Amino acid sequence: MPLAAEALLPVGHTLGVVLAVLLLAAVAVASLARLAQDDGRSYARSVLTAGLRAAAQLAAVSAVIGWVVGAVPSLLAFVALMLAVAIRTAGRRITPNSTWWWAAAPITAGVLPVLAVLLVTGLVPLRGIVLVPVAGILTGGALTATVLAGRRALEELETRNGEVEAALALGLPLREARLEIARPAAAGALLPGLDQTRTVGLVTLPGAFVGMLLGGASPLMAGAVQLFVLVALLLVQVVAVAAVLELVAFGRMHRLALLPAEGE
């Protein structure tokens, strides 16, 4: 239903101007509020860079998506690229050292089994464009959960290191001592997904639902697809949080500076 989509958000000069104003406003607020990252760098530059990258990447995807979905190998390659980018992004957000690559475990452990079930059952066909947005939504959810859980767990262990030492002195294994401190903080990464699921239809109408309606689907069909996406996202995020928590507890992911001989 292209006419409905154009009526909702017509693509033209006005859209470009409004997008630029919104992005610059976000940059200005971040700068005035002095929002800064852990290393002291302002978030203003990150907001500007993220907005420009999003525009460039969406333009590139729009140009090649027709070719990508035309054959199974290119389709699978595109999904693999999505996973690779998500793994690096999540890993580098959690830690600056070479243990970042362990982010591959929580992201793939959450996304790949769910995608496999959907493909095997035929709910998502291997051919066509359906696989790309579904894989993107699941990968994005895993990325968010992994970053939040990993950062919160490591920050909590740094802040409450004395409690970990005390637990070790009482005879707890290192893994158990770390889990006692990090688990509640890491579990907080599930809150955005839980709140989105609880308030769907009341506070927000997510993209899958709106997209289905604009594509001509009935409200019932759009609601069913959105419910499927939300439930799948919950599973992906729960698996990702559980996996990253175990990685932190076992010391596979940390923020210690490694010696050159150790890979840094």
Automatic annotation (TrEMBL):
The chain crosses the membrane at residues 54-87, 99-124, 130-150, 200-221, 227-250. It comes from the Bacteria. Keywords: Membrane, Transmembrane, Transmembrane helix. GO terms for cellular component: plasma membrane. Pfam families: UPF0014 (PF03649). Its main location: membrane. InterPro entries: UPF0014_fam (IPR005226). It is found in: Membrane. It is a multi-pass membrane protein. The keyword Electron transport does not apply. Belongs to the UPF0014 family. This is ABC transporter permease.
